[in-house]
Amino acid sequence: MTTSSTNGHQKPKNLVVIQLSGGNDYLNTLVPYQDGLYYDFRPNMGLDSESVIPLDEKIAFNSHMGPFKRLFDQEKMAVLMGIGYPEPNRSHFRSMDIWHTAEPFTSSAVGWLGKANSLLDPEGKNPVTTVNFGRGLPRALASPGVSVASVGALESYGLYTGLAGARNRDAMLDTVSRIYQPMDESGIPSRRILETGRGALDGADLLREAPSTYDSDVEYPEDNPIAQSLKGIAQVMSAELGTRIYYAAHGSFDTHTNELVNHALLWDQVSTAVSCFWDDVQQQGKGEETVVWMFSEFGRRIADNGAGTDHGSGGVAFVMGDSVNSGLYGEYPKLAMSDQLDGDVHFNTDFRQVYATLLEDVLGVESETVLKQKFSKLELITN
User: Fold this and answer.
1) What is the pLDDT of residue 200?
2) pLDDT tens, residue by residue, 232-274
3) What's the confidence (pLDDT) of residue 211?
4) Among residues 330, 350, 312, 328, which one has the least CA distance to residue 25?
5) Which residue pairs from 183-192 have beta carbons closer than 8 angstroms and sit at least 24 positions apart in sequence?
């Protein structure tokens, strides 16, 4: 069941998801630069006053996040402090599965955005309702019967679609159909997976044309992988293909060693990419209809390990867009021993509250259908 996401002639909003893979360091991203405990626990990894960009009298961005500060000052960014889930898990794989499926207590192969896709396009008419930029398919996008296009570079995507003549293309489709023939228990090929595979090919036909309709003077750095992914997203947006969900990932943010160097490089890449992308979105006149959601599977430990930081729990996330109610959400990091969770920052905002907000106020679908229970929304989006 879907709810209306339009008001008059207002266009439906689209959701751009950026996954920071590996566990981004909350405290060196959003730095409690006036808290002496931060420096006590991080004698090696603590960022001094020259390495931060203050947001207020308590909190600062990492100095490699200048474009984020500009978006924050322009009131286009919400910063979610202490985001997480009950009974946190410090395994990359399990924690990311929890974020992807919105199932903290059980295992599931069905992703929250895959479910959203099936509500947005219940008959599967548009094979590019969801587009992923990157290798493989994130579990967040997986759902039975849902076709998702997974793209490396648009210019080289859809290699089979350039075959000359319908007969050659049909022959290739037949070959691909044979590849997509896992057997069910009775030995009969799975029609659902076969149709999903063919749907991906249909999506290739649409997506390979996107660069030809794209016109922008924004220069994305070619040596920046996440910038190139976001350029691809901007290209698909410009083609007006009815895509509602875009997904890209960057990392690894698993900074156990050499963190000061590696974390700075990662945020240079992400900040530059987001800055280019948002300039592009504005040029296309899509700032009001585009919402960016950026998350990581967990934060890092409060105390450093001498060379970096280890897996933690509570983290930081971001929501960006012209329709976003900007500001700081949640509680400032509490670092006193009595406030810690086994050496970690406690979470205070359940990420499923954000999902409920994005599902209803951005994608226009019933959140309870996707999340299996009702979560209170945050006042993040102006419709």
Assistant:
1) 59
2) 999 999 999 999 999 999 999 999 999 999 999 999 999 999 9
3) 87
4) 312
5) 192/144, 192/145
Residues 6+ apart with CB under 8 A from 56: 328
> Tokens 């296009």 label which residue?
149
Reported as a single tens digit per residue, the pLDDT across 190-218 is 444 444 455 556 677 788 888 888 999 99
Alpha-carbon distance 363 to 113, whole Å? 10
User: How far is it, in rounded angstroms, from Cα 361 to Cα 364?
Assistant: 6
From residue 86, alpha-carbon distances to 83, 163, 232, 368 in Å are 10, 51, 35, 18
CA 58/CA 56 separation, integer angstroms: 6
Backbone phi, psi, residue 362, to 5°: -110, -55
Strand partners, 192: none
Which residues make up the CATH 3.40.720 domain(s) of the chain? 14-154+218-371
| Domain covering 14-154+218-371: architecture | 3-Layer(aba) Sandwich (3.40)
Predicted confidence (pLDDT) per residue in 23-50, tens digit: 999 999 999 999 999 999 999 999 999 9
